[in-house]
Amino acid sequence: MEDIKIKHNYDKVIKEAMDVFKNHTLDFFVEGLAPIKEVLSTEITRIEAVRTSADKVFKLEDNTGLHLEMQIIISNEDLKDFAIRNILLGAQHKIEFKTIVLTIKKPSKNLKLKSLSVEFSPKFIILSERDADETLRKLKSGENKNPIELLYLMFYTSKEGKSVSELLDSSIKLVPKILESRKEINKLNNLLLVNASSVISNENLKKILEANMTTLEGTPLFDALVSIGEERGEARGRAEAIDTLFSLLEDGYSLEEAKEILQSKAN
Questions:
Q1: What is the helix, strand, coil percentage profile of the chain, to 5?
Q2: Residue 5's pLDDT band (cuts 50, 70, 90)
Q3: Are the C-beta atoms of 215 and 176 separated by less than 8 Å?
Q4: d(CA 28, CA 30)
Q5: For residue 138, which of 38, 143, 216, 253 is within the disulfide window of CB 3.0 to 4.6 Å?
Q6: What's the whole-model pTM score?
Q7: 3-state secondary structure 25-83
Q8: So what's the pLDDT on residue 266?
Q9: Distance in angstroms (rounded) separating the CA atoms of residues 184 and 186
Q10: Domains of the chain, residue spans
Q11: With helix as H, strand as E and coil as C, how does 208-231 read?
Q12: Domain spanning 1-129 has what CATH number?
């Protein structure tokens, strides 16, 4: 597997995925979790009236809480922060909370909870330990229909040597086979592109997008500029959308900022 260097947006992606796909996302983390009953406030009021926040917080139907965090590299200080949030959330909502941490690489063996006299054992979901090839086989056969697998497949390890770019290409092609709702397809594609822009070079990402424009049609990122080039033909409009997008990325804009600029030009 290629060395993955996350640049931005990793926490935003999982938050939006939870909003749209809800219990599919819980199944992706841990089998057997009770379904989501309600979304709780992520704001935590501390005794000294200082406010902090967790990434995502839910009340489940078994009357327990789920505290979800996304962290690429986990330090002892992060572990301490997670424990403090877990305690404060439990006190604030009057229910017991479990903490799940989504991460790319396995935490250090030296990772220990320091300076807190509490027992705290979060569940770590380590994406690089998941089997990309077996997951892809199950997705293609229909045995696995969880759309969140497609969102993070590019971070799994391929024993067959598939690159991050190849895994992304496979994910994009499978989206319309896993989902039926056009709204959900567009949302998942958009989140896929946000994840991909963090780990794949602009050159490789551009090639993948050009090869999958039919599948990606309807994604807000590209629809915004396609309308500008319609009088010159659909293909040219799409090409202009891609070229403009990557010019913005190369100028240092984030994917979300680029989308807003494209949308303003289309309007």
A1: 55, 15, 30
A2: very low
A3: yes
A4: 6
A5: 143
A6: 0.71
A7: HHHHHCCCCCCEEEECCCEEECCCCCEEECCEEEEECCCCEEEEEECCCCCHHHHHHHH
A8: 58
A9: 5
A10: 1-129
A11: HHHHCHHHHCCCHHHHHHHHHHHH
A12: 3.40.1350
Q: What angle do CA 155, 194, 224 make, to 5 degrees?
A: 150
Distance CA 132, CA 145 (A): 15
Which amino acid makes up residue 105?
A: K
Q: How far apart are CA 211 and CA 201, in angstroms?
A: 16
Give buried/exposed letters for 151-168 (b at 16+ CB in 10 A, else e).
bbbbbbebeeebebbbbb
- Tokens (6 digits) for 24: 């599919």
Question: Residue type at 114?
Answer: K
Q: Which residue has the tokens 């009357």?
A: 63
Distance CA 14, CA 56 (A): 9
- Written as one string, the DSSP assignment of 177-211 is HH---HHHHHHHHHHHHHHHHHHS-HHHHHHHHHH
Whether 82 has a pLDDT exceeding 90, the answer reads: no
Which tokens go with 194?
């946000």
Reduced to 3 states (helix: H, G, I; strand: E, B; else coil), residue 18 is helix
- Higher pLDDT: 141 or 54? It is 141
